[in-house]
Amino acid sequence: MDHTYCERWNFPDVAPVIPLSEADARQRDAEGELYTAVIGEPANPEVLVEVVRPDYVGVYFPDKLGRQWQKFAFRRVDDALFLESITRWQYGDESARMLGEAELIEQVKYREDGTVHRQVRDKKAREKRDTDYHSVSLDINWEPVPEFGDWASVARFDRDKPAS
Q: N or C, which terminus of the chain has less Cβ within 10 Å?
């Protein structure tokens, strides 16, 4: 899978903000500075991996229009990454470009103790629903800390089973 790099990704413009060479991205990685790995064609990326070593990895899955559709947020716990939240945005029509224009936002937050909090904000229905779950097995929420450029495990959309 092809990788390109940038400082950040601009979702409304579907474009990189300050493209980086691989060497520049590696240097940022080593220094703990923010950078983004763009996986797939830069004009239409499949996945965006935002990295701030050693503590955070954000994985974005754009929709067909390049908008933020789903995000996995990982934080470092000891020598591993823990998937602490999944956020999904649903837009009413193709003219909506910004996160604030999403009609439905669903966020699931995970805690290491097996507590899960799910919140759904439906702007169209003008309602917010919160649900808590307890004693949930979160074995699939753990990932090895990836080496630079090895994003396959954290960038997989199917999280139903542990990475092999």
A: C
What number of CA atoms fall less than 13 Å from residue 18's CA on the CB side? 7
Give the closest residue to 63 by CA, choosing from 36, 85, 35, 93: 93
Q: Is the pTM of this model over 0.85?
A: yes
In the numeric block, which tokens belong to residue 2?
A: 């092809």
pLDDT at 1: 59
Q: What is the SS3 assignment for 116?
A: strand
Residues forming a β-bridge with 154: none
- Token pair of 83, please? 């998937």
Number of Cβ atoms within 10 Å of the Cβ of 83 = 20
Beta bridge partners of 129: 120
Q: Is 102 exposed, middle or buried (0-12, 13-18, 19+ CB in 10 A)?
A: buried
